[in-house]
Amino acid sequence: MRISFCCANTAPEPWLVRLRAAMPQAEVSVWQPGAAAADMAVVWQPPQAFFDEQPQLKAIFNIGAGVDALLKLRLPPQAVVVRLEDAGMAVQMAEYVCQAVVRHFRDLNAYAADMQAGHWTFYPPRQRSDFAVGVMGLGVLGARVAQALAQFEFPVNGWSRTPKALTGLTPFVGAAQFNDFLACSRVLVNLLPLTPETVNLLNHDMLGRMPRGGYVINVARGAHVVDADLLALIQSGHLAGATLDVFRTEPLPAEHPFWHEPRITLTPHTSARTLLDDSMAQMVAKMAALARGEPVTGVVNVAKGY
Length: 306
Ligand code: NAP
Ligand code: GLV
Hints:
Blueprint: E1 2-7, H1 12-22, E2 27-30, E3 40-44, H2 48-53, E4 59-62, E5 80-82, H3 89-105, H4 108-116, E6 133-136, H5 140-151, E7 156-160, E8 170-173, H6 178-183, E9 187-190, H7 204-207, E10 214-218, H8 227-235, E11 239-244, E12 264-266, H9 276-291
Parallel strand pairs: 1-2, 1-3, 3-4, 4-5, 6-7, 6-9, 7-8, 9-10, 10-11, 11-12
Helix pairs in contact: 1-9, 3-5
The structure holds NADP nicotinamide-adenine-dinucleotide phosphate and glyoxylic acid (GLV).
Glyoxylic acid binds next to loops.
């Protein structure tokens, strides 16, 4: 078996060392134009030229959970696209989102600023029952996040395309229940995949339907949010603020107004990192299964976009 590695912004060596150790019978190499035809590919944001030169690929392994960038390319139609499922990302996402919710709920940014300035101040405690957190997307990551939030006894709402059998949350399904979901969610956590249906979903109209004082946590993709709409709603006082980990352009451009809005907390797309060993173990097991002709999970539905 030949495996071609084509990952942007990723040092190849640690991946190659592990792939070769786990699959000694395979020929593993970093893709370069003109490289030999491979059976399987390990990719992250590859160029179109990679697929144009490798039309025979049987399987494409994406070293991330989201496949929005990959699905913009022309892929070999027979190749299965396999994404990472959890692989150590779900617990990271749970800890990131819980810290963002708790930081806002407990006024920890304000306390940090006060202490820095030498002020010993108290803010009135908030009512947890008034602080329902709505999780958009109840897949591998969203379900784990919802479960973690429920451990802190926040009321949790969950919104998905199809019904889910999850305990500890109030479920909302599809477009028909979207308004009700928004109206009763004081904090919104976005964990949707970026698809033609979800692009620009966090816009003025939709965010305006959140209760006054609402808070937004976007950990999915920057293009879910209409930046100017989010800013306008924060500056008008309808929303209390946001925690943003993902952006339309990354790195976030120096002139972007998000940098200067103190009610927005920013991080550089780090809420759930791809972990080398966990990801490799998952991919290698699936490569071996596919080579034996067995089915694997995590196969992307290209028509749906996730
Ligand atoms: P997933 O398992 O595919 O889950 C996606 C969820 O979204 C599913 O519950 C799905 O509903 C729901 N959904 C999709 N389209 C919808 C729509 N139009 N309306 C309502 N619900 C919809 O994905 P995941 O592994 O949890 O990952 C989610 C996203 O997180 C990724 O796509 C990626 O963009 C992002 N991510 C970000 C980071 C980071 O570091 N910031 C790291 C990893 C992933 P059904 O189950 O009913 O189909
Ligand atoms: C990261 O953003 C991922 O999709 O894994």
